[in-house]
Each structure stands twice: as C-alpha cells, then as structure tokens.
UniProtKB/TrEMBL annotation:
Keywords: Cell membrane, Membrane, Transmembrane, Transmembrane helix. GO terms for biological process: cellular response to starvation. It is a multi-pass membrane protein. This is Carbon starvation protein A. GO terms for cellular component: plasma membrane. InterPro entries: CstA, CstA_N. Residues 4-379, 393-541 form the CstA N-terminal domain. It is found in: Cell membrane. It holds the Pfam family CstA. The chain crosses the membrane at residues 71-92, 132-156, 162-180, 187-206, 244-265, 274-297, 317-338, 359-386, 406-432, 479-498, 504-520, 532-550, 562-593. The lineage of its organism: Archaea, Methanobacteriati, Methanobacteriota, Stenosarchaea group, Halobacteria. It comes from the Archaea.
Amino acid sequence: MTQVIWIVLAVLATFSVGYLSYSKYLSRFVELDDDNETPAHKYEDGQEYVPAKKPVLLGHHYSSIAGGAPIVGPITAGAIWGWLPALLWIAIGNPLMGAVHDFVSLSGSLRHEGKSIGYIVGEYVGERGKNLLLWFAFLTIILVVAVFALVVAIVFNAFPQVTTASFVYIALAFIFGVYLYQLNGPFIPGTILFVGGVFAGVWLGIEFPFALFPGDYPAGTAVLFSGGGEWIPGAAELGVNTAAWVPIIMLYGALASALPVWVLLQPRDYLSSFLLYTGVGGGILAIIVGTIFASSSQPLVVDSSIPMFHGFWGAEGLLVPLFPILFITIACGTISGFHSLVSSGTTSKQLNKESDARLIGYGGMLGEGLLAALALSTLAVAGFAADAAAGGIGGALPNFATGGGIILTSFGIPTSVGAPFMALVLVSFLLTSTDTAVRLGRYMMEEIVGTPAGASDSGLSADPKSLVRGRYTNPIVQILPAYILVSSGQWVTLWALFGGANQLLAALALLTATIWLANWDDTKQLISTGAPMAVMVTITILGLSWLIFYDNLYVNIIQGEAATTIALASSVVQMVLAATLIYLALSLVKIGYGNIQRVRRNKSAVATDGGESED
C-alpha cells in the first residue's frame, strides 16, 4: 500500500528548491529594492492604499488566493484520473508556473503605481488591449463570486458548526480592526487575545451549531426556520438550506468589499491566517507524525478506491480526457489567474517594502500548493466512490473535512472536532476570497470607465459611470449575474467554465508580465514568463473548446442531457461566455505578441544603427 506521506514529501522537495533558488533569481531579475517607495506609502489614503506589516499582508494575500479551488480541484482530479497525475501537476507546475505568475504580477504592479494588470498591459499596447483584459478579468470575477459563494453555502449546510464559528470570527475581526487601527492597541498582545478568540469560536460552533432550514444536521443544531423555503431559487437542485445561504454570502461579500481595508479585510485575513496556517501546517505535520507513529488500525495510506492512475479517459464511465481537462480542473493549487488580480489589485496597494514581494508573491503561492497537496491527501485517506468522481464541489468538500479529520487523529484529536475545524479552515479561505473578488471587480470597472484606482466614489448618484464603478453599487453589478448562474443549479459545468476562464486569465497575466519585461529592458529574458504563458494559452483554449463543443453542444443539447429549459439556457450561456473568453484572449495575445516583436525589433535597429528607428 502507498503511504500518503509520499504526496507531501514530493511537494515539499520541489517547493523548497523553487523558493530557495528560483525565487531568489526572480527577485534579482525584477530588481526589488527596499530603497524604492512602494505605492502603499506613496498614495496612502486610509481606504485602499494602506501599508501593512509583512505577516498581516501575508495573511491577507494567502487567505485571498487560497479559496475553495485548491481543495475542490485536486480532490476531483484525483478521483477522476488517480492521485499521481494530480500530484505531478501540483509539484512541478506550481514553482515553475504558478509562483512565477503571482510574483511577477505583484512586482509588475509595484512598478506601475499599484495598478492592475489591465492598466499595465494598456501602458504598452494601448487602450484596446487594456479594455480587452479588464473585461476578461471582470467576467472571470463574476464566475469566481458565483463558485465561491456556492462552496461556502455547501459547507455551511454540511457543517452547521462552521456557520457559528464563521460569524464569531468575522465579529472578532471588526473589533480587532478598531483595536489595531483606531485605538492603536499593542500588536502582539492583541494578536494573542484575538487569535485565541477565533479558536474559541471553533468550540462555540461545535457546541452551538445553527442552520436556516431543516436538514440532516448534528444533534443540538438550532434551525431558524421550521419549514418552507422551496420558493428560493435553486432550492430543488441545491437543497433549501444551501440555496438560502447563497444570496446571504453574496450580500456579505458586497458589503465587506465596500468597507475600508482596515475595517475588515486586513484584520480578518490576519486572524484567519492563523486558522489557515494551523489547518494546512497541522495537516501536513499530522501526516508526517501519522506515518512515523502509524497504528495498525488506521495507518495513513492511500485508500484502495484511489488508484495511482485511472487512465487517460478517467474513471470508468466518465469519458473525461486527462489532456487538457486535468489542467483546468486543478487551477488554484498550481496556477490561477485570480491570483494576478489579488496581487495587482489589493496586495500591491498594501506592500510595505519591495523585498516583501518574494515571500508574499512567490511564497504565498507555494503555500497554496501545500493546501492542494493536503486536499489530495484527504482524498487519499478518506477514499472516493468511483461513481461519485464527477461529483465535483458536492463530493469534494465533505471529503476534505472528513479526510482532514482522519489525518488529525494522528495528534489524538477526535474526528468530531477535527472535521468541523477543517471545514472552518476551508470557509476561512472562501469568505476572504469572495469579498476580495468583489472588491477586485470594482477595481476592474474603475479602470474600464477611467476612474483612478483608490478614488472614493459611493456610486449613489445618477451618473451611469458612478453607478457601475461605485463602492456600493458596483457589487450589485457583479452579484446579480453570479446569483443567476448559481441558482440555475448547473454548478457542475459551472466549475469547468470557472477553471478554464481562471487558467486563461493566468495566461494573460503572464503575457502582461512578458510585455512589461520586453518594454523595460531588451536584455531581459522572456522565457520565465513567456514559456508558461504559451503552455497555458494552449491548454485552456483546448479545454474551453471541449466545454463548448462536447459537454454543452453535444452532450447537453444534441443528446438532450439538458432536460429543463433553465438547464438548456445555462448551457447556451456557458457556450457563449466560453467563446467570448476565447475571442478576448486570442485578440489580446495577438496584440501583445505584436508589441513584443515591434519593441525587440526597434531596439535591435537602434543598437545596429546607433540612432533612433521608425516605429
């Protein structure tokens, strides 16, 4: 039997080599210098540009990038194709592609006043290129909000203990923000006090769980509404309780995104980072301890239902090709375009000094890879029924908590405590990512309509531009279409569309970095960003094409798998959206490639002629 520790050791080995060597090279390559004034200091406004201590900002960044995707993706991929293909993509792709992507997105934003990747590409290829990327990013943000809100709702339904604990830690974050930024309370004593409160919230959740509508819950769960709820959109497909939580979570994300970063974003992310570090680090350490001191009754070995390799077409009866679908099923854990929006959207506006970018950008992505490895390990120990391999979100999330609870028994922690704790770890990631995504969507729209990032605009006026970019009105523009997508009940195919869009956005972020480097200095090599960009463009366009022509056109429409009107409409919308994303991406790649060729050709001509050349 294969021991689960080999999954962990493989990832730790490649990640260590990447951070100790490649990240040092990249830091010198982009010329990080602490003597340079960062955008957080240059434009400090108390709203968006706020310098943050490195551990605080690392907590925000890690919490924001590590949502549910690095958990759902590896578990689903491992169940479909086996644990080895998933492990290889995480262990090799993360340090060579994903961490590079996050680091250069953050570094590029630092060199461009803390602006987004859309602004950066516009500086070199013009307004059309900027708008193409910003619209692509904005559409992807809507998918992110939809998927993450749904995942939180599913976890709240499966583990009502987590609902109580989540409310406790959000309330503590508000108080901690006031304590830290308004009352100027001492940092370390405050950390000890409030982190202790967050972990006490886990106990409160276990003792006093609650749900909105009746369901199969642990004994003692308080139910707020005794019955009904069938009228809620998506109730038939998702279940009443899950469907009821979705709009509440989206409204939370909208409200949280409108607040100054010091009120909730920074303190909550910092506090939740202790949950996340404990969950991820504790889970990894528990696997090591559980291997060294394994008991004969429950050794940490790969369950027989999870083979090393199922085959190219996946588990029996699924007909899902490993290439290219594996590489969009596992997105955040290896490489994720959403991270470029976080790096260039919120993180770059809070970076205290340039050298912090190495740990936060490159190291933060490695941390997410560890979460992906832990998720794959939870699948390995808990197992996954072959006929449930396509269960995606619905199957993956309970598996993570259940498998995590089994792993934590290595420390003597009962599964009745360990499973809800791991579920709270998951929700901590997701709540952070959800409202960060909505905030980033507002930044995208601010740049599309021409408002400088960081401008104070409530949106409460008759001006159409103010309405679409406003702090309070822009979130509505995002959550309404996101809610429609989720309430249709087509969440299984929605995940594939999210993965494809997210990975294609990563390719465009790498393209942006390559354009920036080419225009910066003709001595800069373009392989570190250009090679992963080319790989991701190829993989994601093939993956989205499969989604359009096979999953939706052939299976859902021609063969009639989309049996209801709303399911049929959802398939059509997904096809149109996927085709639109492919068009936007290819258009931008063409413009960007032309810019790189022109810049390098002109600089070569200048070097040869000893003077200026015509453009």
